[in-house]
Amino acid sequence: MAYQFDFSFLSEYWPELLRGLWLTLKMSVLTIVLGFLVGTVLAIGRTAHSAWVRRACGVYVEVIRNTPLLIQMFLIYFGLASLGLKLGANFCAILSIVINISAYTCEIMRAGIESIRKGQLEAAQCLGLSRLQTLAAVVLPPATERVYPALTSQFILIMLTTSVVSQISAEELTSIAARIDSITFRSFEIYLVVALLYILLAVAVRGTFWLIARLVFPRLRRLGTPL
Amino acid sequence: MGIAKYMTSLVVFVALSASAVTASADQLADIKAAKAITIGVDLGQAPFGMVDGTMKQVGSDVATAELLAKDLGVELKIVSVAPANRIPYLMTKKVDAVIASFSITDERKKTIDFSNPYAVIQSAVATTGGLKVSALNDLEGKEVAVTRGSTNDQIITKAAEDEGLNITVVRYDDNATATNAVVSGQQDVYVVAPSLLVPVNAANPDKKIEPQLTLKSFPLGIGLRKNEPEFKAWLDQWVTDNLASGKLRETYKTYHNVDLPDDMASFN
Question: Taking CB atoms and an 8 Å cutoff, what residues of chain A touch B172?
Answer without folding.
Answer: 167-169
